[in-house]
Each structure stands twice: as structure tokens, then as C-alpha cells.
Amino acid sequence: MGEGTYHPNENQVLPVPDPTKPYWRSELHDLDDFRSTPNLPSECDIVIIGGGMAGVTTAYHLLLENDTPPNIVLLEARQLCSGATGRNGGHCKTKVQTLVNLLPTHGPDGIDKLVNYVQGVQYGIKEIVEREDLDCEFELRRSFDVSITSRKENKDTYDEACKDGSGWTKQTWFINNRLAEMTTSVTGAKSAFSVPACSFWPYKFVTQLLQKTLNRYPNALNLQTRTPVTSVTQADGDVTNFVKTPRSTIKCSKVIFATNAYTSGLLPSFTDIIIPYKGMASHITPKSIVHPHLSNTYNIDFGPDKDVDYLNPRPDGGIVVGGGKWNYASDRDSWYNNIDDSTLFPPKALKHWDGYMQRNFRGWEDSEAKVESVWVGIQALTTDGFPHVGRVPGKRGQYMLAGFNGSGMAMILTNAKAVAKMMREEREFEDVAQEFAIPEWFGTSLERMTTA
Ligand SMILES: Cc1cc2nc3c(=O)[nH]c(=O)nc-3n(C[C@H](O)[C@H](O)[C@H](O)COP(=O)(O)OP(=O)(O)OC[C@H]3O[C@@H](n4cnc5c(N)ncnc54)[C@H](O)[C@@H]3O)c2cc1C
What we know:
Layout: E1 43-49, H1 53-63, E2 72-75, E3 91-92, H2 96-131, E4 139-147, H3 152-163, E5 173-175, H4 177-184, E6 191-199, H5 202-216, E7 221-224, E8 231-234, E9 241-244, E10 249-257, E11 274-285, E12 297-301, E13 308-313, E14 319-322, H6 347-350, H7 356-360, E15 370-382, E16 388-391, E17 398-402, H8 409-425, H9 429-435, H10 446-451
Parallel strand pairs: 1-2, 1-10, 2-7, 4-12, 10-17
Antiparallel strand pairs: 3-6, 4-6, 5-6, 8-9, 9-10, 11-14, 11-15, 12-13, 13-14, 16-17
Flavin-adenine dinucleotide is lined by residues 14-15, 49-55, 75-78, 82-85, 87-92, 228-229, 258-260, 262, 265-266, 279, 281, 310, 322, 377-379, 404, 406-410, 412.
Organism: Clohesyomyces aquaticus
Pfam families: DAO
InterPro entries: FAD-dep_OxRdtase, FAD/NAD-bd_sf
């Protein structure tokens, strides 16, 4: 990690040095290692901790069309966008399986709320890409949820929901056994759903958006990479926050924890609530481009004894594929509560990617597709699968948007807007959640923490 590398001790929940290199970080931006000033400011209005999708989109919305912009310092432990956002699958969607799982606890209205929320995020990302002219291979597309085994319960739930006229079924389409393999090109597909999705190059989105924001507000926003925060403290009865780093301490009135999987490192009360969870992904390229282009993204469900992979075909003919969890799941310590994204899973697990496209996609059998790279990343696991957003329970002047799970990018953008609005207008989460149609169960609270 070069100058300023901080080596956390083994009990610290902090990003580790020298993470594996994801495909998405193959073209580094000038901001990757950037520090706006040689020294940290000693004071500011707001410190944002975390330079991923959550931290950067919150900074953007705090400053957007703001005539009285606050002074913001954005602190990132490693390089910009070197966490989960820089090492994920790159598509935003909700799987039908997620909706089916939600039914018993949140009912049909809850499902509609989540689907509408995710759609708002997809359109919101598109709007920013267009407004800010971001060159990040954004595509508004469809995604197949392919099942290799029957998964009859999902079809039954879908049929019931269609009968009831549930909103989410209007954008969803079921593909039966006879047509599944032909329609999706997935070898052995038994059925599939087609759902709305978007995809983009997350690293390019985040770095370019931050560059535009820095250009527009050079005096208000200060980026400091390679600056891990080791604690945030408040004096008794005082709302001032002291944000401590190995370089110096910053005094500020407000702090945002956009630290996702690492949140418990700074907020220990979240230790069993937001759990770091290691996953792997790969980049596969054919010897020459396989036509026709796979225009959808995918989740492939290999059955109850295995798990779900995710695939994001790239415009250049390559493909980002992640998952393969069942190849290492039995070694729980290797992924659960694990923050080490500097080491890959054992070779047996990596074999999952060998010949992957040839095995699983019709038309790719003779593609001579090769694995170009494999990497790992740390996402968050929360007991209910949803993020914690709003004021940090029991603290004043502290806000969070963290705990984004495996499909986390589909949950972030509108939450970032909401947190920015809470801070700009001194509002409460419940209030802005209603305004932005955010599922109310994303809100963090002592009650949610104790029942988690
Ligand atoms: C392998 C993998 C595949 C995935 N695939 C998908 C997908 O296809 N679609 C999808 O929607 N989601 C996917 N996800 C999940 C998604 O990437 C995350 O939910 C999302 O990127 C979270 O964004 P974030 O900004 O909250 O977190 P991050 O991008 O992790 O950003 C948090 C940042 O905070 C920094 N940080 C943490 N602690 C400190 C500290 N103490 N001091 C300073 N900085 C700190 C970290 O270095 C990091 O850069 C995947 C995740 C992984 C790991």
C-alpha cells in the first residue's frame, strides 16, 4: 500500500493492506491514491468514513446544489473504492428468491416496497450517469434468475402474486422448463425469471463521480486516501466528534459511517449485527468474442445443496462471474466474520472457475474461455439481510449507512440521498424514508439491534 500503510492488529476490524486485485481496478483513476492536502485538516463540519459507493454518493448529495456547502473530509483506509464496491459483480437487481424469502415477514406490500425501492436506485444511478456524464459502461438491462433445479416454490409464489395483482409481477416474467435453456443459454436450465437490472463499472462510477464533485466544490470537499480511522469518540455531554487516525485527529460536529462490513471496528455495538463476510469473483474472457452477446446479467441457482452464482457479461465480450460459495462453505472461518481480502480461497475453490463458461453456457463450448483473474472482497452480512441506515442509535451527530449485503449496491443510492437530506435539514430517518419511499425496516434503531 506504499507510504502511510497502516497495519491493523489482529483484533482490529479494519481493511487489511495489499488486497487481491479485482478486474474493476485494472484502470486506476488519478484519485485512487489521492490526498487533497498533505496534512489532515484539524477541524471540519462532516467527516465521511469510507470511500465506496455509500460514502461517495453521500458526499455527492450533501454538496449537490448546496449554496452553503459544509466542509467535508472523506477518509478512506486504503485506496479509493478498494472495498466491496471495487470488487463486486457490478449489477444491481433483486432476485426473485429474495422476494420469496421476504413474503412471510413483510407480506406482498413489503415485496412491492423493496422492488420499487430497487427500481428507484437503478433509475437514480442512470440519472447520475447521464447528469454527470460518467463513462462507466452503464446499461439498463434485464437479468435472468436461472434455476438448475425445480424451485417450484418460487413459481408458486409468483403465480399467487400474479393472481393478487401484486405490483412486482408486472416487471417480472417466468420462463418455463421447455424454453428456459433456449432463452437463457444456460446449460441445463429448468426455469428462469426475467427481472429488471442495471449494470456498470462500479469503480469508474465512484471515482468519476467523486472527481466531478471535487471539481465543483474544491474548497468544501477534502479527500484523504490511505487514512484509516481507528476510533471516533465524543466527550461526555458534548456533540463534538474526535475522529482519530494514525496521521492526526479531526474534530467535527458530524460523522458518517459508510464503512459497511467494517462498521463494528468503529461502532462495537454492531459486532454481531453487521458481520464481515468474504466472497469471491472472477473475470473470464473467451479467446475471441462469442456472438451473440449475452445482453442480460444472471444469477444461476445451482440448487439447495449448492448456492447462487452471479454473472455480468461485459460489453467487450468478457464476463465477471462471482459466487461458488459451496466450494469453501464448510470452512466457515474462511469466509464468515472474515476481513481478509488479501488472500484467495484454497485452490479447490478456485477450480470452480475453470471452464465455467464452457460448462454452463450454450454456444461457449468451444470458446476457449480463460480465467483472467480471481479476487475476493468483503461484504456485510446482517441478520435480516438489510442495511442499517440513519442516526447511530444512542449517539448525537453520528449517522450511518452500512450493512449492505450481497446485493448491496442495489440498496445504496437512495439511502445516501436520504442520509444527506437528514443532515442538511436536521430530519429524522422515518420522515425522509417516507419521502424517498425507502422501506422503513432499513432504519437502524436500538430496538432493531436488540432483536437482530
Ligand atoms: C465479491 C462480491 C460481489 C458482490 N456482488 C455484488 C453485485 O453484483 N451486486 C450488488 O449489488 N452488490 C454486490 N456486492 C455487494 C456490494 O459490493 C456492497 O454491498 C457495496 O459495494 C457496499 O458499498 P459500501 O460503500 O457500503 O462499502 P465498501 O465499498 O466496502 O466501502 C466501504 C469503505 O470503507 C472503508 N473503511 C472501512 N473501515 C474504515 C475505517 N475504519 N477507516 C477508513 N476507511 C474505512 C473501506 O476501505 C471501504 O473502501 C458484492 C460484494 C462482494 C464482496
